[in-house]
Amino acid sequence: MIGLLAALPALAALVCAAPLLAQTADAIVPVSPEACKQMKLRHVLNPGAPVGCERLRLLTFGYVGFDGQSRSDGEMVVMDAVADHVLQIFVALRARRFPIASAKLMDHFNGDDDASIAQNNTSAFNVRAVVGTGLISVHAYGVAIDLNPIQNPYLTRFGDRFKVDPPSAAAYVNRRNLRPGMAEPVVDLFAEHGFVEWGGYWRNPTDYQHFQVGRSLAYRLARLPAAEARALFERFAERARACVAASINRGESSRRSCIGGF
What we know:
By secondary structure, this protein is α+β, with helices and mostly antiparallel strands. It has helices at about 1-25, 35-40, 85-95, 115-120, 185-190, 215-225, 225-245, 250-260; strands spanning about 25-30, 55-65, 70-80, 145, 155-160, 160-165, 195-200, 205, 210.
């Protein structure tokens, strides 16, 4: 009895702490009608979108900032079929203490990708065209993620010259000098969760911040009913995990065959 009484304060503390833990837990929730309305007003969900709000999910998650402090304000919208895996990616990034500068919805930037990038914002869903083309971006499907754009710039080459976007990312053109927040150490993590295409392997332009599901798979996921799409992506992610695991002892070319898509 004395031991039980002695334990009561600790038990009480746990009970009192439980609601706090619940409030800060990572979560996946449907996009509410009000949030859907805001995405339309903020030019994030635009006419011609290949997926509607019923196929999107809002992720909330904690992350570690560049100052080493924990943050609890991470938000991202992705397709329902990939939501579980995207949340697992960000939980794993946090566990590794991989720093993220910002993770705000594109609503905060009125769908302006340049504005989001300038603020070093990590983001996903945004109905827009691929830069410099009329082709709709895979971001419009909610199956692409841009990670720390300043540490992972977008490079366009013109002969022996190149343009850096954002301009503030010029110090990160040298990819041999690995620094916190750069994508290279986590390329395999994204691939293991089905995001097998990394823009850092693209020749021109080279998009170090960009991870995506292959375009053909994005099309299939969007056309299928939600449950079937989720099952399809789960099978795909299992194959991707197996590919990355098998490539570990086979060298860089084998690894890149997984990350380049298959």
